[in-house]
TrEMBL record:
The keyword Transcription applies. The keyword Transmembrane does not apply. SUPFAM superfamilies: PLP-dependent transferases, Winged helix' DNA-binding domain. Pfam families: Aminotran_1_2 (PF00155), GntR (PF00392). Residues 1-69 form the HTH gntR-type domain. Keywords: Aminotransferase, DNA-binding, Pyridoxal phosphate, Transcription, Transcription regulation, Transferase. The lineage of its organism: Bacteria, Pseudomonadati, Pseudomonadota, Betaproteobacteria, Burkholderiales. It comes from Caballeronia ptereochthonis. In the C-terminal section; belongs to the class-I pyridoxal-phosphate-dependent aminotransferase family. One of its GO terms (molecular function) is DNA-binding transcription factor activity. It comes from the Bacteria. This is GntR family transcriptional regulator.
Length: 485
């Protein structure tokens, strides 16, 4: 193979692998000549080949650029998509497949677990971060050590105090998002092989944490308005040893309920009576639709058994992944585990968020987002009722940005997941929210993104797919029954 052919093939392979993105400028002829130790003539020949293949294009007085991919046609079913199979559903793989589909195919993000970043003040926070980076050319690693930036800790404690949650700033440990806070808390209270009680359905990140640490989950029935069934939990505790309990009392993902205060009090009392720690995932605590911020399990904790976990990812900015834990009596262990697991949380994002909380209108921003989500929850619920077949039911979210949809029993959510992907639409199949297949005819939808004609058309198409899959399942069932007769 000639040198120019070899260079052309290498660059084409790099473009195919995504090393060079569509529209991105590549090295100039002179730069490539120096980089690859080739003559300018050889590089020019290679670039000419790539132009003929449609890989590169030249722009006058600008250089060589990766040619943009052709726009998708009216039918969006042509690109092949990697999806999990229904026979052996791996929750982690299914979640990753959904996220990749959203990113890689510009799919309608009904299946996304993340809020639309559009309404968030990320540009303002980036400005703070850039200013901080300019002021401090280098950071001392000691400044990043747990528990975290003192000013950020103070701002977090202040927000809790203003909302009636008594918090000692000394209890707060800054983490890399709420996911790390949950993982550290779980490590602090349980060991491999232990059993952890969770809601059913439950947020899949909780199941991931349990699986990763070699523990076992036992699912407790959960009411769509009142939360975890405390009576059922009490029966489980009476029968077997439970190392910990993991719950989302406020705007649970995927059900969206706000657990009543009395139920929170009863839950903490039950677990306290048996000295069982409870990990409270309160990541949606700022996204309430009512007039006041809801209470937390921490409000009712008198023995330090509540390990409260939260973050700014759902309410302020997801890109910086700043969260925290308030682990009660397990604070020292969580701080030690933080040091052993990830050593530090980067300082610049911590300081930038602390500056924003101190100087900008966080509450004003939150009021706008809450109003937007409340409106879009109503719109999506109404559209599901309009476009989906009879027998469909939806949750009634009190906060957050997800809608839990019960489909007719014959509709398998994995089949819907596949069919929807072929139409450029993502959903969260019910399989992701349990270790068992008890939610096979449920899906979770994200309503945080702008409601447009395109999203309405996508939801209408999704309703048609539900009807088609249900009809096929009905015909298959009738055929089987006839054969049996």
């Amino acid at each position: 193979m000639k040198l120019y052919e070899k260079l052309a093939d290498e660059i084409e392979e790099a473009v195919r692998r995504g090393v060079f993105a569509p529209g991105e400028k590549i090295a100039s002829v002179r730069q490539a000549s120096q980089r690859y130790d080739l003559s300018i003539k050889t590089v020019l020949h290679a670039y000419a080949i790539l132009e003929s293949r449609g890989i590169l294009e030249t722009r006058p007085q600008s250089g060589y650029f990766v040619r943009a991919k052709p726009q998708a046609g009216a039918t969006r079913s042509q690109p092949k998509r990697v999806i999990a199979t229904a026979s052996e559903v791996d929750v982690s793989r299914l979640v990753l497949s959904t996220l990749r589909s959203i990113r890689a195919h510009d799919a309608v993000p009904f299946g996304s677990p993340y809020p639309d970043p559009g309404p968030f003040p990320w540009r303002r926070i980036n400005q703070y971060a850039n200013a901080i980076a300019r002021r401090h050319s280098s950071w001392n690693l000691i400044d990043d050590l747990p528990p975290g930036n003192p000013e950020l800790i103070r701002q977090i404690a202040r927000r809790y105090a203003e909302n009636g949650v008594p918090v000692d700033p000394e209890e707060i440990v800054i983490t890399v998002g709420a996911t790390e806070a949950i993982n550290l808390s779980l490590q602090a209270v349980a060991r491999p092989g232990d059993t952890v009680a969770v809601e059913s359905p439950t947020y899949y990140a909780m199941l991931h944490a349990i699986e990763r640490l070699g523990m076992r989950a036992i699912e407790v029935p959960t009411h769509p308005a009142d939360g975890i069934d405390i009576g059922a939990l009490a029966q489980i505790i009476a029968r077997r040893k439970i190392a910990a309990c993991m719950v989302m009392p406020n705007f649970q993902n995927p059900l969206g309920f706000q657990m009543p205060d009395e139920r929170k009090r009863q839950l903490v009392a039950l677990l306290s009576a048996h000295d069982i720690p409870v990990i409270e995932n309160d990541v949606y605590h700022e996204l309430y639709y009512g007039d006041a911020r809801p209470s937390t399990l921490k409000n009712f904790d008198t023995k330090g058994l509540v390990l409260h976990c939260a973050s700014f990812s759902k309410s302020l900015t997801a890109s910086y992944r700043i969260g925290w834990a308030m682990p009660g009596r397990f604070r020292a262990q969580v701080e030690k585990l933080k040091f052993l697991n990830t050593l530090t949380t980067p300082s610049v994002p911590q300081v930038a968020i602390a500056d924003y909380l101190r100087q900008d209108g966080y509450d004003r921003h939150l009021r706008r987002v809450r109003k937007l989500y409340r409106q879009q929850a109503r719109i999506m619920s109404a559209m599901v009722e309009r476009f989906f077949p009879a027998g469909t039911r939806t949750s009634a979210p009190q906060g957050g940005y997800v809608l839990w949809v019960e489909l007719p029993e014959r509709v398998d959510s994995m089949r819907l997941y596949r069919a929807a992907l072929e139409c450029g639409i993502t959903v969260g199949p019910g399989y992701m929210f349990s270790t068992r297949n008890v939610f096979s005819h449920y899906i979770r939808l994200n309503y945080s993104y702008p409601w447009t004609a395109a999203s309405e058309a996508a939801l209408q198409r999704l309703g048609e797919l539900v009807g088609e899959i249900g009809a096929r399942a009905g015909r298959a069932g009738t055929g089987e029954n006839a054969h049996e007769r």
